[in-house]
Amino acid sequence: MLEESYAAALAAADPLRIVPAHLPAPPQGRTLVVGAGKAAAAMALAVERHWPAAAPLEGLVITRYRHGLPTGRIAVIEAGHPVPDAAGEQAAADILRRAGTLTAQDLLLVLVSGGGSSLLSLPAEGIAMADLKEVTRRLLRSGAPIQDMNTVRKHLSAIQGGRLAAASRAPVHALVISDVTGDDPTHIASGPCAPDPTTFADALAVLDRYGVEAPAAVAAHLAGGARGAIAETPKPGDRVFANTENRVIATAGRSLQAAADYFRGRGITPAVLGDSVTGEAREVAKVYAALARQVRQHGSPWAAPVALISGGECTVTVRGQGRGGRCAEFLLSLAVELDGMPGIHALACDTDGIDGSEDNAGAMLDPDILQRAQRRQLDPASLLQQNDAYRFFEATGDLVVTGPTRTNVNDYRVILVA
Questions:
Q1: What are the boundaries of each domain within the chain?
Q2: 253-417, what's its fold?
Q3: Residue 235: how many CB atoms within 10 A of its CB?
Q4: What SS3 class is residue 267?
Q5: Cα 213 from Cα 109, distance rounded (Å)
Q6: Which residue of 83, 331, 343, 349 is 20 to 30 Å from 172, comparing CA positions?
Q7: Residue 357 above 90 pLDDT?
Q8: For 4-35, how does the pLDDT look when each residue is reduced to its tens digit (9 = 90+)?
Q9: CATH no. for 14-122+157-198+233-250
Q10: Omega within 30 of 0 (cis) for the link into 305
C-alpha cells in the first residue's frame, strides 16, 4: 500500500501526462526547445509527441546520466549530477549560443526541472569548471538548503539566474516542474528564465553562514560582484523579462494530494502535513515519531487508521563516512525513535528515484525492522551517527529501488498508523 501511494504521487508529476496541456501555440518562425533537469528528457518527449508535425521544432535538453529517452527532433544530452561536469558545460554553452540566434518571430520553449542547477552548468568568465565542481561539493556537504546553494550557483553562472531568458530576442515560455519548497521558479534549476532577487553579497553570506571555504577564483569573483565590478543577475522588474512566462506545471503539493486521494479511497484518513518540510532529516524524524506515537497511543489529533503524508526537502549535514541520502536518514532516525512500536509502517522516497547519490529511491520500515537489524548485528544508532542509513536498509532488505523516474517534485514521506 505504501509503495502504491508513492506511485500515485509520481503519476501526478509524470511529464508525459502533464506537459501537453501547457504547450503554447507554434510561432510564425521556428521553435527552439532547450532545458535541463532530471525530467528534461521526458518533458522533451512529451513536446515531440504533441507538437504539430508541420511546425518547425528543434532543440537540446540536458539530463542526468541514465535519465535519457529516445527522441527525434530534440537532442538529449546526459551530464553530471549532483556535481557538474564537462558534458553539462558544453551543452549549456550550446544552449546559450542557440538561444542568441532567435528572432522576435521565433519561440524559446524552456523545460525546467529539479537537478538543472548542476546539469545546466556554464561557469561565468574567470571561473573554471574544476572550481565550480569543488564549491558544489563543499556546499553539498555543508547541509545548506537548496535555495541557499542556488544563490551561490546563480552568481557563478553565465546562464542561470535569468541569463538564459536575457539572451533571447524571442518570447520565452518556460514549463517548470518544481522540486523546491515554495515552488518559486527562481530557485528551480537556479532560475535560468526567472528574475533573481539575490545578490553577490547574499552568495558570500551563504558561504560564510555554512563555513564553506571557496576556491580562490570563486571567492574573488563573488567579491568582485559585491563591489560592483561584475554585473548582477537580472532582477525582478527588469525589461528582459517583458516577454517571458514561467509556468509551474507540477509541484510537491499536487503529488501529496494525489497520495491523499489514494488513501482516502481505501478508507484511511490522510493527513497532509505540508509540502515544504525542511531541516535536518534526523531531527524532523523525531518530531514525526512523536506525532505517530500520539496517534497510536491516544487517537489524537486523528483517529487511526491515518496516513501522515509530507513532502519537502530535508538536509543532511555529513559528519560520518557512510552512505545514504536524506530519505534513508529520515527513516533510520524514525526507526530509532519508534523503537519497534507496533502498528506503524513508513516509507520515504525521493520522487526522482534517487536518494542522494545512491541507487535507491529511499526505503521502508515496519515494526519488526529493529529485530531484523539485531539479527544482523547492526547498531541503528551508530549507523545513524555515521550517516550510514543505506547500509542499514540494504541489510534489512528494505531499500526501495525504482530506477530513474524522470520527474522530480522533491521527497515523499508517509507514516501509516494502523
A1: 14-122+157-198+233-250, 253-417
A2: glycerate kinase, domain 1 (3.40.1480)
A3: 15
A4: coil
A5: 37
A6: 83
A7: no
A8: 999 999 999 999 999 999 999 999 999 999 99
A9: 3.40.50.10180
A10: yes
